[in-house]
Amino acid sequence: RRQRQMCIRDSNEYAAVLDPEKIAALLRGIRSRFGVYACWGNHDVSEQLLAGFSFAAADPDAEDDAFRAFFRQAGVRLLEDESVLVGDAFYIVGRQDPQRQKKLGEGRLSPAQLLAGLDMDKPVFVMDHQPRQLEELAAAGADLDLSGHTHNGQLFPGNILIHLFWKNPAGILQVGNMTSCVTQGSPSIVSRETTCLLPYLVV
Q: What average pLDDT does the segment 96-121 reach?
């Protein structure tokens, strides 16, 4: 059975991609009736990382044009605290990442501000790299929140402790009338053999 496809991508770590041009070509080859969309991730700035973490102070110059050029080359529409009505049928909403905004010395809209004025009779799908403010998004009228970021703890004992910090560290969770979907992503810091997760694709 054929599926009507819409590709929603959660952006993170351009510098970690060994061959950006090849990845952009693969994304550009996606044949989606509804388009391909992305939101920012927390490492989508020019910064130095230590074991996957950054400690730099706010720096407006950390904005890197390579990210935007990549999305343009890939034919991906980047949503930055904005929404788009697709086919007069449903909304795709992309949030700014709170850590990225802090690194740039900027803020982001609240869920209520971001979803204000949308027709709530239509489904509202939100992309938010980090699965934060789930209750606020549900209260604002979101039907589905798509996230990543947590890697489900990735390493022991992180895969156990992660539940202390995130309401939904991985998988599907119903929050009020909204469904939170958090992908584990794929191992990026160390080899897959030493991680406590398996990458997966949500369809």
A: 90
Q: Is 51 left (phi over 0), alpha (psi -120 to 50) or beta?
A: left
Instruction: Compute how many other C-beta atoms are within 10 angstroms of the C-beta atom of residue 35.
Output: 16
Q: Which stretches does DSSP call E strand in 63-176? A: 77-78, 82-86, 90-94, 124-127, 144-147, 171-175
3 state DSSP class of 127: strand
C-alpha–C-alpha distance, residues 126 and 61, integer Å? 28
The single-letter DSSP state of residue 162 is G
Alpha carbon 97 to its chain centroid, in Å, reads 8
Per-residue pLDDT tens over the stretch 51-73 = 455 555 556 556 667 888 888 99
Helix axes 65-74 and 20-28, enclosed angle (nearest 10): 40
Look up the pTM and report it: 0.75
| Token duo for residue 126 | 């939100």
Query: Under DSSP, is residue 115 helix (H, G, I), strand (E, B) or coil?
Result: helix
Q: What is the pLDDT of residue 194?
A: 42
pLDDT at position 166: 72
CA 40 to chain centre: 6
Taken as a whole, the chain contains a residue count of: 203
